[in-house]
């Protein structure tokens, strides 16, 4: 299934109509990807996303044969040509083991939580699974399909991945934070995909003097949580109201409220500072 939507996509520096889908047949492993959110015509935290994509390649022993500057310019070109100011863009680098790597940039269907979910919180489930190389953003279609089916069955927003030791590491497409004893807990960096939003939250907590302990929460400790939230490119910071059948009062937690407000300000400041960027 071809993900690219709107009128145009970019393949190896060239602009193509999304009616010309033949080039997508070239996609094959090994490959990595990155998804970035565009708000008011600005790719949010672009530099951090490109840095993470480079790291993903290196973690599986490859290098990207494309500069950050070149990718940045192509991102703005894609936004301009599609005249789209608010949606997600996917970067995908395929055939990493070849000298002539294939690089795609295209808009994808994007879902952002409705406002009432931020006010009411989301329902999540636990799911026993762990990534083989958690720091690298690689495609795992089979796992994604299994989790998507389970989420549909349980009418849940996200799945919390639980490893063989009974520890909650991350979400299937997000990072997780938990409040316990007025301290913020999140899994160690080595055990999770280091989301760009997660990194921003860590910086915000330093500024707000909120203590963060990089330690995984046991699934059996869910009953003792004072709050929990998930972070990702598309959801920002969203409170969790329940994990499986356990209710959590995240909406009233002062730490979560502070972090959510500070992250919104961080986004606004970044977008406003980037609006003078010109396409080269």
TrEMBL record:
PROSITE patterns: AA_TRANSFER_CLASS_4 (PS00770). CDD domains: PLPDE_IV. GO terms for biological process: amino acid biosynthetic process; carboxylic acid biosynthetic process. Keywords: Aminotransferase, Pyridoxal phosphate, Transferase. One of its GO terms (cellular component) is cytosol. It comes from the Bacteria. Its cofactor is pyridoxal 5'-phosphate. GO terms for molecular function: transaminase activity. The keyword Nuclease does not apply. InterPro entries: Aminotrans_IV (IPR001544), Aminotrans_IV_CS (IPR018300), Aminotransferase-like (IPR036038), BCAT-like_C (IPR043132), BCAT-like_N (IPR043131), Class-IV_PLP-Dep_Aminotrnsfr (IPR050571). Belongs to the class-IV pyridoxal-phosphate-dependent aminotransferase family. This is Branched-chain amino acid aminotransferase. It comes from Tepidibacter formicigenes DSM 15518.
């Amino acid at each position: 299934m071809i993900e690219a939507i709107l009128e145009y996509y970019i393949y190896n520096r060239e602009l193509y109509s999304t009616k010309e889908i033949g080039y997508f047949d070239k996609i094959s492993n090994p490959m990595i990807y990155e998804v970035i959110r565009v708000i008011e015509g600005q790719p949010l935290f672009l530099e951090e996303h490109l840095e993470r994509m480079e790291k993903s390649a290196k973690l599986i022993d490859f290098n990207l044969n494309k500069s950050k500057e070149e990718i940045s310019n192509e991102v703005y070109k894609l936004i301009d040509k599609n005249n789209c100011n608010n949606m997600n863009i996917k970067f995908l680098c395929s055939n990493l083991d070849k000298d002539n790597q294939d690089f795609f940039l295209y808009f994808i269907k994007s879902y952002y939580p409705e406002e009432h979910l931020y006010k009411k919180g989301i329902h999540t489930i636990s799911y026993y699974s762990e990534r083989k190389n958690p720091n690298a953003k690689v495609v795992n279609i089979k796992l994604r399909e299994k989790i998507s089916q389970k989420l549909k069955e349980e009418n849940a927003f996200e799945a919390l991945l639980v490893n063989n030791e009974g520890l909650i590491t991350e979400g299937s497409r997000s990072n997780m934070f938990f409040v316990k004893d007025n301290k913020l807990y999140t899994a160690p960096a080595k055990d999770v995909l280091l989301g760009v939003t997660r990194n921003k939250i860590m910086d915000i907590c330093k500024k707000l003097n909120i203590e963060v302990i990089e330690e995984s929460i046991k699934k059996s400790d869910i009953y003792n949580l004072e709050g929990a939230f998930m972070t990702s490119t598309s959801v920002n910071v969203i409170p969790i109201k329940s994990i499986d059948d356990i209710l959590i009062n995240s909406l009233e937690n002062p730490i979560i409220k502070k972090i959510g407000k500070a992250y919104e300000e961080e986004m606004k400041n970044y977008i406003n500072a980037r609006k003078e960027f010109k396409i080269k």
